[in-house]
Design brief:
Length: 297
């Protein structure tokens, strides 16, 4: 071992000698005092409290005129039988949040919906229940769900299988179709899947296959629902790219004389209807009155 490597190895194994006795204490390098941003000994401190802000930003002292804590709010719910057919409503063991019920009501009226409510407010339930409703009405009905990341696609495959199959006793074939899917499974999914989960880049690659593989003929001919999840991720150049892919999809669907409904989900943004329309080329009803129970803040 050369001398330089020995020095590096020695430093790596004895950080306390290299960094000194205060190594475990994070400091503000400009002033040499303990940080108040949640690091080191201040880890448990509320960094947005008035005391913490004054300590961190002394020039702001006196500018905080009021501090208020908002209490948690109970959920606003609707019995499922108000918006779902009896066979499906009876399989739910909980009421729907009001925004879920509103979205499902608008879908029943033939509208496209963009759901823009808080994180963990149950947006997935909107399109999961619509998939279930379509499947019970027509077992051949299909749905296409687009997600921005492969990892999210796999998570949602598990979520949809749990909800549709285990919880609601509806059993469509839900399948991830992307670059990690083995060829033999792709063949089966083209021919048999009711719900295909993929990403926009994958969809762009697979669209030309509709003229070569008979399975895609079946899938697009029976397509009742297109889901664009986490649509706020698609902005700028990426958003333009996805918008053109979705227009390619709609042209393919015109070939099959198919006109599916769209469900777009997004974080709370200022222009959900406009964003969804620019992304897909179709008009949307906005569902933004969140019925889920927010915690205190």
């Amino acid at each position: 071992m050369n001398e330089g490597a020995a020095d590096r190895d020695d430093a790596a194994t004895r950080p306390e000698e290299r960094r000194g006795p205060e190594a475990g204490r994070r400091t503000d390098r400009r002033r040499g005092r303990p940080r108040t941003d949640g690091g080191g000994r201040e880890r448990g401190r509320d960094v947005l409290s008035e005391d913490a802000l004054e300590a961190s930003f002394p020039d702001y002292r006196g500018q905080i005129v009021e501090s208020r804590r908002l209490p948690e709010r109970p959920a606003e719910t609707v019995p499922p039988e108000r918006v779902l057919e009896g066979a499906l409503a009876e399989r739910l063991d909980t009421d729907l949040f009001t925004h879920q019920a509103e979205a499902l009501g608008r879908l029943a009226d033939g509208e496209n919906v963009v759901v823009t409510t808080s994180t963990s407010s149950g947006k997935t339930w909107v399109y999961a229940l619509q998939i279930a409703r379509n499947h019970l009405a027509d077992p051949a009905a299909t749905a296409l769900c687009l997600y921005p990341m492969k990892a999210l696609t796999r998570d949602q495959e598990q979520e949809l299988n749990t909800k549709l199959g285990a919880d609601w006793d509806v059993d469509p074939l839900v399948a991830v179709y992307d670059g990690d899917t083995p060829s033999d499974r792709k063949r089966r999914y083209r021919n048999e899947a009711n719900v295909v989960l993929t990403n926009p880049v994958g969809l762009n690659a697979y669209l030309p296959g509709h003229s070569r593989y008979s399975g895609w003929h079946r899938f697009y001919d029976d397509l009742e629902l297109v889901v664009v999840d986490e649509a706020h991720e698609y902005s700028g150049v990426t958003g333009t790219h996805v918008a053109w892919i979705l227009r390619r999809l709609r042209r393919v669907l015109e070939h099959y004389d198919t006109d599916p409904q769209f469900v777009v989900t997004t974080a709370t943004i200022g222009n959900p209807a406009e964003h969804a329309r620019r992304l897909t080329g179709v008009d949307f009803a906005v569902v933004d009155e969140d019925g889920s129970p927010p915690g205190s803040s």
